[in-house]
Amino acid sequence: MLDWNPMLNQSHPTVFVFRIFTAVPEFQVLLFLLFFLLYLMILCGNTAIIWVVCTHRSLRTPMYFFLSHLSFLEICYTSVVVPLMLSNILGTQKPIPLAGCGAQMFFFVTLGSTDCFLLAVMAYDRYVAICHPLHYSLIMTQKLCVQMVVGSVGLAVFLSLQLTALIFMLPFCGHRQEINHFLCDVPPVLRLACADIRVHQAILYVVGILVLTVPFLLICVSYVFIASAILRISSAEGRQRAFSTCSSHLIVVLLQYGCCSLVYLRPRSSTSEDEDRQIALVYTFVTPLLNPLIYTLRNKDVKGALRNAIINKAASDTH
């Protein structure tokens, strides 16, 4: 039962609790096991990509440099959300203090935004590789790759810091607030504020455009040039190879941007809190899990490196 007496804020600090998925103990156990298994698969899959990129010289190229950083982001991204989520599935609702909710929102938005920026950087890398192959090594230097990653992180930190600070300056009336979500995401926390939030919603929309729409448009422009260049390749084998290096990235882009846009760029009047929570499950579990699967199953270089690493490991263990 929520207490909406604003006077309680003066003597009791505000805490948040997450709405439970189900009150049925058997379903709680099943959900816990399912999400825990998915989390382990995300950790193992993305760690495998980082390990194979770091240990194989043939994969020390800008494309795999960005891919390993994307995998690292996915590990951090899910680790900010899933452990706390798992602890709340079983048993009673566990309160999270205002500062803890703010910290989770900051890291969640930062890592999610960096993910979006990095996907745009990866599209630029594919554009240079396919449209300007002779100048690829001159353009995509190690220094530029590092600057692009650092720039993506820096811009994401700047935007998420401003957004999180703005939201947690709002008053929250009552001691115990229930968030209709499994994490401290921006839209559900905003709905709990006991103040006029129209300006905050407009700012959230602007940030959403900067993080989602602008990078997505840049990716689309890159792929228009890429598609044009691929069609000009004379050999069918060359076209197939060029397409295969881009198709994995495109699948990840459509999943990531599609789900996030449904949550952050839809008009508030047409959104449902339950729908937002269901969509959030996709970009919390499905996208980070599919990233390593898509990039390994559709990439001969990564598959070959993983196969060689496993064979070498097995051979070393037998001696």
Briefly summarize what is shown.
With 319 residues, the protein is mainly α.
Topology of this protein?
Blueprint: H1 8-11, E1 15-18, H2 25-55, H3 62-89, E2 96-97, H4 98-131, H5 136-139, H6 142-167, E3 176-179, H7 186-191, H8 198-231, H9 236-264, H10 273-297, H11 300-318
Parallel strand pairs: 1-3
Antiparallel strand pairs: 1-2
Radius of gyration (CA) equals: 22 Å
Number of self-contained structural domains:
1
Low-pLDDT parts are 1-10
What CATH calls the topology is Rhopdopsin 7-helix transmembrane proteins
The secondary-structure element order is HEHHEHHHEHHHHH
Proportion of β residues? under 5%
CATH superfamily: Rhodopsin 7-helix transmembrane proteins
Helical stretch count? 11
Taking the sheet with the most strands, its summary is: 3 strands, mixed
Q: Which strand order do you get reading across the main beta sheet? A: 2-1-3
| Overall form | globular
Task: Give the second-level CATH assignment, the architecture.
Answer: Up-down Bundle
End-to-end distance: 64 Å
Q: How many DSSP E strands?
A: 3
Query: What would CATH call the class?
Result: Mainly Alpha
Quickly give the structural class: mainly alpha
Global mean pLDDT: 84
Helical proportion, percent range: over 70%
Subcellular location: Cell membrane
Main location: membrane
Organism: Castor canadensis
Membrane topology: Multi-pass membrane protein
